[in-house]
Amino acid sequence: MNKQKRYQILSRLRDNNPNPTTELNFSNPFELLIAVLLSAQATDVGVNKATGPLFKVADNPADMLALGVDGVKNYIKTIGLFNTKAENVIKTCRILVENHGAEIPQDREALEALPGVGRKTANVVLNTAFGWPTIAVDTHIFRVSNRTKLAPGKNVNEVEQKLLKVVPAEFKVDVHHWLILHGRYTCIARKPRCGSCIIEDLCEFKDKVEI
C-alpha cells in the first residue's frame, strides 16, 4: 500500500470520528489502568459492568489496596480469569503506593513492571491517559492492518512497528482507536461488512464481502 492511499484511509477514519476514545469507562489514569488490566480475554461491556460498582468504592490505588484480593474478586467475578486478575490488581496497587506515590507512572518500563501489565496495556495507558503517540495492537488492529494491507505483519509486534513507521505524526495519537473500532464494528473477523465500509475502495483485501 502506498503512502497516498494510507493517508486517505486515515483521513476518512478521522473525518468519521474526529475524537475517538476507548469504550472502557474510566475517570482517571488509575481507573484506565485497572480497566485495561481486567480487559484481557473479556469484553469492554463486561469490564464496564464490573468496574462501575468497583470504582465507586475504590478509584485510587490506596482504596483498591484496602479492599484486598477477596474484596476485588467480589466485584470482578463475572470477568474471565478473575482470580488471577484480582491478585494482579492488588499487587499493582501495592507497587503504585509504595514506589510511585500512588500515581500512574508515565514511563513504559515502570508500567510494564506492574503485575499483569504487558506492552499492549502500557501502550493503551500511555496513549489514552497521557496522549502519547503509542499504538497498542490487539486482535482487531492486527486483523485490520493485515487485511487492508495498511501495515501488514506476522505478529502484533511487527504490526506495531510497521504502524509506527508508516502512520503520519498527525494521526498517531488516534490511530489505535480508529483501527480497533473499525475492527470491532465493520472489519469484523468472520464476515467483514465491506459494503458499509467507508474505506472499502482503498482497502486492498482481495476477498471483499458485499452486503
TrEMBL record:
The keyword DNA damage applies. [4Fe-4S] cluster binds at residues 187, 194, 197, 203. Its cofactor is [4Fe-4S] cluster. InterPro entries: DNA_glycosylase (IPR011257), Endonuclease-III-like_CS2 (IPR004036), Endonuclease3_FeS-loop_motif (IPR003651), Endouclease-III_FeS-bd_BS (IPR004035), HhH-GPD_domain (IPR003265), HhH_base_excis_C (IPR023170), HhH_motif (IPR000445), Nth (IPR005759). Binds 1 [4Fe-4S] cluster. It catalyses: 2'-deoxyribonucleotide-(2'-deoxyribose 5'-phosphate)-2'-deoxyribonucleotide-DNA = a 3'-end 2'-deoxyribonucleotide-(2,3-dehydro-2,3-deoxyribose 5'-phosphate)-DNA + a 5'-end 5'-phospho-2'-deoxyribonucleoside-DNA + H(+). Its EC number is 4.2.99.18. Residues 38-185 form the HhH-GPD domain. CDD domains: ENDO3c (cd00056). Keywords: 4Fe-4S, DNA damage, DNA repair, DNA-binding, Endonuclease, Glycosidase, Hydrolase, Iron, Iron-sulfur, Lyase, Metal-binding, Nuclease. Belongs to the Nth/MutY family. This is Endonuclease III.
